[in-house]
Amino acid sequence: MDITTFIIAVYCLIDDLVGELQLRKRGPQSTLRDSEVLIIEVVGEFLGLDTESGIFTHICRYYADWFPGLRQVHLTTFTRQAANLWKVKQDLWKVIGQKIPQDPYLSIVNSFPVSTTQFGWSAKITQTYLDNLKHLFEGLSPNAS
Description:
- By secondary structure, this protein is an all-alpha fold.
- It has two domains: 3-99, no CATH class; 103-145, no CATH class.
- It is 59% helix and 0% strand.
- It has helices at residues 3-20, 34-46, 52-63, 75-84, 86-99, 123-140.
- Helix 1 runs antiparallel to helix 2.
- The two termini are 36 Å apart.
């Protein structure tokens, strides 16, 4: 899949999913739509751009025609709007997670072992920590109620 097709696919997916969520209830309408900010962030992360300024600069340089309001906003405005959408990003992650078929008994977790003795934890504290971690991962499952 080329980058143009990817951007179109992400645009359609996020725009449709954001349409299901109620974003702004009050306040002025932003120059750049919230769905556009989310799309720009997803595409930028896919391209390996790790910072908001890197994403903003790259998209402005190469894809500004796709997002007409982008040339009218400053980097600070874009970054603030992206940061204020944290709850929407979290809700989108849950919605997308529920739409992806998965085995509820099989999950891949990227982690590495850390000895808890280096923190001076006793066996009791370590077990409590591991129990809490287990509940955290169970709660992250999209199929959890």
